[in-house]
Amino acid sequence: MKIVKHSGSIVEFNRDKLKSSLLKSGAGTQVVEEVLNVIDSQIYEGITTKKIYKLAFSLLKKSSNSHAARYNLRAAIQMLGPAGFFFEKYIARLFISEGYLAQTNLFLSGRCVGHEIDVAVMKNNYIEMIECKFHAGSETNSDVKVPLYILSRFNDVKDRNHTIFTKKDKISACWIVTNNRFTSDAMTFATCSGLKLLSWDYPQKGSLRQRIDEDRLYPVTCLTTLTAVEKDKLLVLDIILAKEVSDNAEVLVKIGLSTIRIKNVLKEVAELCKYM
Q1: DSSP type of residue 47
Q2: How far apart are CA 133 and CA 110, in angstroms?
Q3: Are 265 and 243 in contact (CB under 8 A)?
Q4: Do 185 and 140 form a contact (C-beta atoms < 8 A)?
Q5: β-pair partners for 130
Q6: Which contacts qualify for 263-271: CB closer than 8 Å, 24 or more apart?
Q7: pLDDT tens digits, the chain, 276 residues: what are they?
Q8: DSSP 8-state secondary structure symbol assigned to residue 41
Q9: Do the bridges between strand 171-178 and strand 196-198 make them parallel or antiparallel, or are there none, so unpaired?
Q10: Helices 85-97 and 208-215, interaxial angle, to 10°?
């Protein structure tokens, strides 16, 4: 059966691929098969992947809010836009969870010109810069022009003294992080140039998706018990991760939630963050 992707391209419906993504939500085999059976009965020639996704999401939500939240992860990261400012904060949180110190939104003087740097991280006195390439749509990939441009910026700021964590910090390496994917040319050039890449599914071991699951770094935007407006309010209050909600439950009162809704949100967060 032919289905239509977000990009408009037409592909064969891949039931196994859908099953794999449903299982990654944490739902059991029986629940996943029930969801797939309903979808099998409702899909038709020319249906969009967006409609299939919405149907799968609603069916999972009936089973468990946390399963639906996890299934919604990639879309939830896209909600850290539209400009990507909150995505930069999110990536900083990811590195902090792995033992780094992090600073965001920096302006550093290079040998030739000044540069806005998204994130700088330090571990064992080794400092790296991180450039975040945020895409609001799921079909947009970062091509070879991205590492070409960022390499020139890295070369301009490296080996100079900067005031980031101390007064004499030198940047020794550079990451490029995207919420989508890199083209093959971008990966080849980055590897050849010594740049580090992190995307939704790259590298094969330690991809963005894997690191999120392993460290339980689910963004607050994936919670199904909150409205889009409420999620935006939390982001403005610097609540970026779902688990930060349970550590700062009073913010739910601040954004106007009732006692019953607060209980539901905290239950979803607890189920979500205990996964794996």
Answers
A1: -
A2: 21
A3: no
A4: no
A5: 119, 175
A6: 264/65, 264/225, 265/223, 265/225, 265/226, 267/65, 268/65, 268/66, 268/69, 268/223, 268/224, 268/225, 269/223, 269/242, 269/243, 269/245, 270/246, 271/64, 271/65, 271/66
A7: 899 987 778 999 999 999 999 999 999 999 999 999 999 999 999 999 999 999 999 999 998 999 999 999 999 999 997 777 999 999 999 999 999 999 999 999 999 999 999 999 999 999 999 999 999 887 789 999 999 999 999 999 998 999 999 999 999 999 999 999 999 999 999 999 999 999 999 999 999 999 999 999 999 999 999 999 999 999 999 999 999 999 899 999 999 999 999 999 999 999 998 854
A8: H
A9: parallel
A10: 60
Q: Name the CA dihedral angle for 257, 263, 269, 275, rounded to a multiple of 10 degrees.
A: -160
Using CA atoms, how far apart are residues 88 and 132, in angstroms rounded to an integer?
A: 6
Q: Directed axis angle between helix 49-63 and helix 15-23, to 10°?
A: 40
What would the two tokens of residue 102 be? 């992090």
What HEC string does 152-215 produce? HHHHHHCCCCECCCCCCECEEEEEEEECCCECHHHHHHHHHHCCEEEECCECCCCCHHHHHHHH
Amino acid occupying residue 44: Y
Please, what is the end-to-end C-alpha distance for the chain in angstroms? 34
Q: Residues with Cβ < 8 Å from 114, sequence gap 6 or more?
A: 107, 108
Work out the number of other CB atoms within 10 angstroms of the CB of residue 23: 14
- The three-state secondary structure class of 11 is strand
